[in-house]
# Entry
Amino acid sequence: MAFRDFPKIDKASVNSDKSDTAVLGILSQANGFICRRDVPDKGCDLDAELIIAGTNASNWRFGIQLKSVEQLTLVADGTMISYAFETSRLGYLLNRPIGSGMVVIYDVQNGQLYYDYAEKIYMRLIRERQSDDWLDNDSVNIHFPIINSLNDATAKHIHEKFTDNFKKASLILASQGPRYDYPAIPLQETQFDLNNPENVTKLLLEFGFSLMRTHDINLLYGLIITIPSATIDQHPELMVMAAVVYGEVGKRYDSEHYIHKLTRRGKIPNEHRQLIGFTHLKNQLALNQMDIPEFIQAAKLLRKDALTLQNEVLLDLNIIFYELLVPKFYHLLPEGIHERIKETFEKIQQLKTDDQGKRLLEVWNAENLASLIGYYRLKQLNQLAIQRAMGMKNKSSELVRESNMLADLQQELYTGLERLYNIGKDTEDKLLQAYSVVVRSRYVLTQELDLISQMPILSDVRFHNETMFINSIALCLSATDVFREFNYHETAYQCLCYGLELINVSRSFYHYADQFSLDHLNHIKSQMEASRDVQVYEMLIPELLARIERENKENIERPMFVVKNLDDEQIKNMAYNFSEALSLPKEYLTNIIAELKGYRTFYQRCNNNYEIIEAPKHPRLELSYRQPTKFIIRDKVTGISSLPVQNVDAFLNSWGI
# Structure
């Protein structure tokens, strides 16, 4: 440039200045931020410090990378912004304390700002790319939602998120720092010594309910047990925390101890009244002080007065879960329960809570979906067994339709659980991974129980191969270890029992080879039963295999003996299931029900000295129930047989039985 030439202000410089001004106007001191340009710029454009308690500069800082674009590039039907971003810049943001930061894009054309968190961008890339190969590239196309508009309203949420992140980091440092001779200053103004019960009490009173909302039960339990009972008794808030946390880790009697004290003294804070009421219900159920129908009824009463959407969702999850446990075999499900499960998934997404909390709720609702699928699966297996027993080679149209529906539901379940497991893996959320595994393990176990109950007629049916099955067991046992690590002893115990059951299936039924130590696992089970208020789990598989062997033998000697203890509703639904499996005309249903009731009457009133035989029917299956079934009753002692009779009850009366 010559002496009289001036430096030129190019378009990029103008746009950069506009973007800086726009961001600084939003992330301002008025909104709780102190923003500075990061000079020299080595990976961040701006350094943002949080103002806490309205006026205090906290030195809690995070980096912001700011980009200006002339025109946004939109993908995913216009819902996501796409931008080629330097991978080194993303890594630099995530290497800041608490592993977080922000990327902000300024749309020059419209004067709009958009943002996303660095860790969310990273996790989204991991899910999208299915590998970490992109880490070696100079740049990568990042995506984030176009609804993430940076303005005064969202600045408040950003401030809350980073404040919460720094508080959690301080708590972690306070608890783990001393192990590494690291000076721990957990909460800025006050030094908390976690070995000092007075300091722990202050910490819980200030931040305990925040930890509870984010499901940090492990940390809460570790803190609460360091406080003397007399100190807890002085603070209703601590008593509420103790009641809930002890209940969640399986110490039901300790939980009830605090609930009783709170109730007797009339000290339950109004905002926690529902929480305590629900904890009390769960304790009563776990301690066999109420049955499942009583629990459902009481939970529905609580649900009517739910104060928040969060409470609604928690109660709905549990009500649906136990409603799915209530129906006996051949009883119908509660009306509309599938729609309620779907509605609960939708409500979870509407919650104004952290992502971790939402994901855990999704897992728990996935368990309800798994139970629903189990109901349809058992019905389908039963129909398939009926068809084979009756010599039908082709599936009925109804069975084909239900098979397709079941396959779609199962795919929905597996896809959802896999997604949540992978998110847990990407975010190092071991608890989310463990819950995803335990739901899948329980589903696999019930699937095997349903199949085994139809043996030997369905002996060729398989839901897995050997490698898949052994891997399911290994995952289940690894989830047990995670729950034990996090002090979720009740869930750990259940998970361990599922693993033991699956090992029994593997060895006793499929004769697979594995390296698991049953002696060691049973020893852990015994230890957990001795040290916790858990309801002792009795293994199902050994008894189930023995019962099936007995029933198969009995079915030869005493046909349809299974109906002896069925009620009228079960008889009706069994008849419907039978007619549906064989595609029989609906008008035959009355005769099928009468036949089943005839067998039931006989077995309820006759001992082994008598036998019941069906009189010959029409040889064509589709016509066999056009007329009512007739029976021949035989006295095995005298050898006397009756003529064919339709009314078993009247005939037995005539014989004085």
Notes: Residues 186-191 have pLDDT under 50 and may be disordered. The longest strand covers residues 56-69. DSSP finds 23 helices and ten strands in the chain.
